[in-house]
Model the fold of this input.
Amino acid sequence: MRRPGLAASFAALALVALLTACDRAPAPNADQAVEAFLARHWAEPIPPQGTPPAGYTALEAALGVADCAQCHAAQWEQWRGSLHSHTMGPGIQWQLRLMGQEQGNRCLRCHAPLAEQKALVALQQGWPGAPKSAPPDYVPADLADHGLVCAACHVRGHQRFGPPANKAVPQPVPHGGFVASAAFEDSRFCATCHQFPPDGPRVNGKLQEDTYAQWLASAQAPQQTCQTCHMPERQHLFRGVHDRDMVLQALDIVLEVLPGARANEALARAVLRNTGAGHHFPTYMVPKVDVVLTLVDAQGARQPIAHRIIGWGVNVALTTEAFDTRIPAGGEFVVTQPFAIPAAGDWRVELRLDVAPREHYERMFRDSLRHAEALSPEVLALLRQALQEAEATRYEAVRLTAQLPS
Done:
């Protein structure tokens, strides 16, 4: 049985967001039907679901990911291994405990966008705009903890939405079927969170989130969408720089060792071309990629040659840019370094690519730990967990070697 008065209390929740629906750059041959759909679908704030239709079973009305998995097991299995399922991890949880409702909802706009999720967070945080009554039966208590859940993209007013069917749909279709829209296969669907509006926050004049505009300016835009790479064959994988295969798909890497300008000298040259990503590599400030050139011999001795960083270096206060070495789509990053050839031994040049997907967050979390005495034990525990999880995402993506010239 549903508890009375809940729809009204959830609808009354103050859901304040700084970033309104993205003022997207115009796409080539923009489909106005898609634009109209997206304006409704990503209305800010997303309205509460309301009372489920009378004929719905409890499972049909439920918004929880475990409920969706009853029929969509493959999609659920893919999603739960993705970053979308972790958008409400300790990295944001410790910060929410230091925020007011208005500031918190700016983050929740993308991290947990449903009205029901925001209501649950407000209840957890004791924010003044929190509902006065418990959530409806169709809202599981942990809905907000799962981040960007299935319903965030696929459910509005208890109606299901998705891309046009590409295979026979079993009959009868539960929850009254679904509304098909080409918007789900359009990059503008992803731009809602992956593109700040022109008046959004910037560093050194650059939008902090600018992925859609980068894609729109790329040569890939006419041939592939965000979904082509990040949801191949409609899989809910959402892989990016955290995934080694995606990095290898993005980059074409060449390592060569050439004769030097002087005797007993050689020139190491590494060229990394962004041939596969339809946006900058990496696209935003959080990841960093270390390019390390080293002399190695058969016995394992090592001599450093060069170290460069690919990424956008910004201070933790998001006010100052230190460097921007990201590789635009179609661009290249070249490391050229002369070095002395060792007098004896069987030496080779090694290129290693080390990826730190959350490097900016690592620095931010360490900086916050300097003020540990001002944090509650609960917040401090979440902060330390966030740092540990961020550091654990580091990995080696590439290791190549090249012979020295004769």
